[in-house]
Design a protein that fits this description.
Elements: E1 2-8, E2 12-18, H1 27-35, E3 41-46, H2 49-60, E4 70-71, E5 77-84, E6 90-97
Parallel strand pairs: 3-6
Antiparallel strand pairs: 1-2, 4-5, 5-6
Amino acid sequence: MLELELHFPDYVQLDILTTTVPSGRGAIARFLDKFGEGIQQVEIDVTDVDRATEILRARFKLDPIYPATRSGANGTRVNFFLVTISNAKKVLVELVEQPNQ
């Protein structure tokens, strides 16, 4: 697996995972075989994950994967949404609230 992290102004960051060998049989290669290439997950830093969840529910009629915010890695609070994008593909949206915000 090859991982790239790109950092841009205004706190925009991209974390890109790819296979080192396109014909590999690791987890990333199997995932790409099943779902194809493209954006699979978007992580969004928010100051209040509960409020962001309510906005997505009310304004965009999206239901979170979990009914309530969950504990994430390193003391974060998280929730997830599976959002349909073009050609009926889906992308996983992760809302992340850092600790002590």
